[in-house]
From TrEMBL, chain A:
The keyword Cytoplasm applies. UreD, UreF and UreG form a complex that acts as a GTP-hydrolysis-dependent molecular chaperone, activating the urease apoprotein by helping to assemble the nickel containing metallocenter of UreC. The UreE protein probably delivers the nickel. InterPro entries: UreD. Required for maturation of urease via the functional incorporation of the urease nickel metallocenter. This is Urease accessory protein UreD. GO terms for molecular function: nickel cation binding.
Automatic annotation (TrEMBL), chain C:
The keyword Nucleotide-binding applies. This is Urease accessory protein UreG. GO terms for molecular function: GTP binding; GTPase activity; nickel cation binding. GTP binds at residues 41-48. It comes from Actinoplanes campanulatus. Its main location: cytoplasm. Belongs to the SIMIBI class G3E GTPase family. UreG subfamily. The lineage of its organism: Bacteria, Bacillati, Actinomycetota, Actinomycetes, Micromonosporales. HAMAP family: UreG. One of its GO terms (biological process) is urea catabolic process. Pfam families: cobW.
């Protein structure tokens, strides 16, 4: 299955954000949620079908204009499943954030079901003066099953320079992924990249988490846990919506 | 190319500061994740497939074109979220340049403290080695340094540790070949495999009052 | 006339100006780096206490800094700080990966970096003391790292130590036999130690010391003063 979705958020000229484009197709359905006008706009990803399954090629493009504030959430975890034999499933998410724009990407976790083969590609470009909060959580297998194969490939650029470049591979075909260098037997991992203003304070955030100042203008928080609750305990407090001035 | 020169570059006795770095092993031992040969095996395989692949690719890229040192250095910054690991990599790069300057005529680099793989590539280039040889030296270094630290920290049988390194040698070659194939790619396209526990562990390690290894 | 210098009026007292861009506090031995003295010896022999004593004795008259290689990153540095003998910015700690002798002999890069960083941060120095981690009798410093080395043993380690020899005792530029105040308590015969040290070391000097009684390590401080003076004279010649 091939599907694509697009969100374009713009400042409405009255201190709020309007959605100039909100277009999706199953399984990438998008819904505007939450109150209108109150500082920013929230869009939920609504799963329209099981999956992604092997062979799926999905693409979501997000654009946040100058002064616009967009929060992207999802109603439920997405579950990468094996499906029929075939090429890996793929979800590509691209986002651009203009100067003065804010994008908060805080979806529910991706679950790598046993036997899945999934590639998640993320390309984010934030202009100087833009603000980004980008969260990705991954759970390695449903309850009591081995992890499927997931490869996450993330590039976040800020002000024209690459701020954060990261790949993570888990499951069959990823040597040592459950060894003590990568996840150490942990079944969940989460990352949060913050760039621009309002960055979290660096430090160690629990025994298996850290908030790290990047070499460029941003911060990465990473947490590894026996399950997703441990990851949430470390990262959720860093994702709380700041009081919005103006 | 000279095999003897490659051996010099990969030798753990090269005075380039490596003996004081555990490659992230010390914090994982403290966390109880590495206690024996089996767990060391898992650690080394993960390290080789992540940091080892990245180091090998960047060493090969720097060896292939030392003129790219500055952009490669920035590429490693973007791949090294932990400030403690950036510091450790740059300290080892600086130490490697110190040794390399005494051994060969090095091209001038934009930084006196480049990331370790960039320095390694510059040395390999000055020594007349090829990108794939630089990649092998880099991949080899990422596991032998930690393995030596395991012998010192856990008192593991050195023969058992070297038996493990022998089993990992083909994987080391495979990773190096994979890395070297891509040495001419744009920096953003070079490997970026990360290891969350190495990042987290390094940040915790940097706060310890008592530690035996610099990283 | 140097283009950066101003005109002198006819009624001015004749005077000179330092070269622009030149630190007026530049030492007499311009061009020579700090004298580097290594201090090695077995665990517990009093290396850190000796460093503290030397800082007390020499801190006022020499621009000095310390690199410590204790297995614990901050312990020795903390000792010096607690004793108020040296401010934190003059101390660097080096991790040795469980191999204190490697860091001072086989792979000296981390120590060289620490010395260079101190000189870069503090400006020219007269003396850098490099304290090794506690090791055994075979540990010695590389000549690539230090100019002169002191080996510290103590009376409580037994009066046979000098006779055993080993590279530290035999080749150090100065052998310090510390804790002489304990000799009667541990039944050590200082004359035996003196005789054995002379036999092992021939013309190389040995001093007896009780840091409990001489908190400024006078004979060792004097030995270092003489080295610095010689070095300055040579560099100035």
């Amino acid at each position: 299955m091939r599907a694509s979705a697009t969100v374009v958020a713009e400042a409405d000229g009255r201190g709020g954000t309007r959605l100039a484009v909100l277009r999706g197709e199953s399984p990438l359905l998008l819904r505007r949620t939450g109150p209108r006008g109150a500082g920013g706009t929230t869009v939920h990803l609504v799963g329209g079908a099981a999956g992604p399954l092997r062979g799926d090629d999905l693409r979501l493009d997000i654009e946040v204009g100058p002064g616009a504030v967009l929060e992207m959430l999802s109603v439920a975890a997405s579950l990468a499943l094996p499906g029929r034999p075939g090429p890996p499933s793929r979800l590509t998410v691209t986002a651009t954030v203009a100067a003065g724009g804010t994008l908060r990407w805080l979806p529910e976790p991706l679950i790598a079901a046993a036997g899945c083969d999934h590639i998640a590609v993320t390309r984010v470009d934030v202009a100087d003066g833009g603000t980004l909060l980008w969260r990705d959580d991954l759970v390695c297998g449903r309850h009591d099953e081995p992890s499927g194969a997931v490869r996450a490939d993330t590039t976040i650029r800020y002000a024209g320079a690459t701020l954060y470049r990261h790949e993570l591979a888990v499951g069959p075909g990823a040597p040592g992924w459950d060894g003590a260098a990568v996840l150490g037997g942990g079944r969940a991992v989460g990352t949060l990249v913050a760039a621009g203003s309002g960055l979290p304070e660096p430090g160690v955030a629990g025994p298996n988490a850290a908030v790290m100042p990047l070499a460029g203008p941003g911060v990465l928080a990473t947490a590894v846990g026996a399950d997703i609750r441990e990851v949430r305990a470390a990262l959720d407090p860093l994702c709380r919506r700041p009081a919005i001035a103006s | 190319m000279s095999l003897a020169t490659l051996l010099l570059l990969a030798d753990g006795r090269l005075p380039s500061g490596g003996h004081a770095h555990s490659g992230g092993l010390e914090p994982q031992i403290a966390a109880g994740r590495v206690r024996d040969i089996r767990e060391l095996d898992g650690f080394l395989r993960g390290r080789l497939a992540t940091g080892g692949l990245v180091s090998a690719a960047f060493a090969a890229a720097a060896c292939g074109d030392v003129g790219r040192a500055a952009e490669l250095d920035a590429g490693l910054d973007a791949r090294t979220p932990s400030p403690a690991l950036r510091k450790a990599s740059r300290a080892q790069g600086r130490a490697l340049l110190r040794a390399g300057r005494a051994m060969w005529r090095l091209a001038s680099l934009p930084s006196r403290e480049p990331h370790q793989p960039v320095a390694l590539g510059a040395l390999a280039s000055a020594a007349g080695l090829t990108p794939v040889e630089a990649a092998v030296a880099a991949a080899h270094g990422t596991i032998t340094g930690s393995a030596s630290a395991a012998v010192r920290l856990l008192g593991l049988d050195p023969y058992a540790v070297h038996a493990l390194l022998a089993r990992l040698a083909p994987e080391c070659d495979r990773i190096a070949a994979l890395a070297a194939e891509r040495h001419g790619d744009p920096v953003d396209d070079l490997p970026a495999a990360g290891a969350p526990l190495l990042d987290i562990g390094a940040e915790h390690h940097a706060t310890w009052e008592v530690r035996l290894f610099a990283s | 006339m140097h283009p950066d210098l101003h005109e002198h009026g006819p009624d001015e007292v004749p005077h000179t100006h330092p070269e622009p861009g030149v630190d007026p506090h530049e030492p007499l031995h311009t061009g020579a780096r700090a004298l580097r003295v290594g201090i090695g010896g077995p665990v517990g022999s009093g290396k850190t206490a000796l460093v503290a004593a030397l800082c007390r004795a020499l801190g006022e008259e020499l621009r000095l800094a310390v690199v410590t290689n204790d297995i614990y990153t901050t312990e020795d540095a903390d000792f010096l700080l607690r004793n108020g003998v040296l401010p934190a910015e003059r101390i660097r700690a080096v991790e040795t990966g469980c191999c204190p002798h490697t860091a001072i002999r086989d792979d000296i890069s981390a120590n060289l970096d620490a010395v260079e960083d101190l000189e870069a941060a503090l400006g020219p120095l007269d003396l850098v003391l490099v304290e090794s981690g506690g090791d055994n009798l075979t540990a010695t410093f590389s000549k690539g790292l230090i100019d002169q080395q002191i080996f510290v043993v103590d009376v409580a380690g037994g009066d046979k130590v000098p006779r055993k020899g080993g590279p530290g005792v035999t080749t150090a530029d100065l052998l310090v036999i510390n804790k002489t105040d304990l000799a009667p308590l541990v039944g050590a015969d200082l004359s035996v130690m003196d005789r054995d040290a002379k036999a092992r070391r021939h013309d190389l000097p040995t001093v007896f010391l009780s840091l409990a009684e001489d908190r400024r390590a006078t004979p060792v401080a004097d030995w270092i003063r003489a080295l610095v003076a010689t070095r300055t004279a040579v560099a100035g010649a």
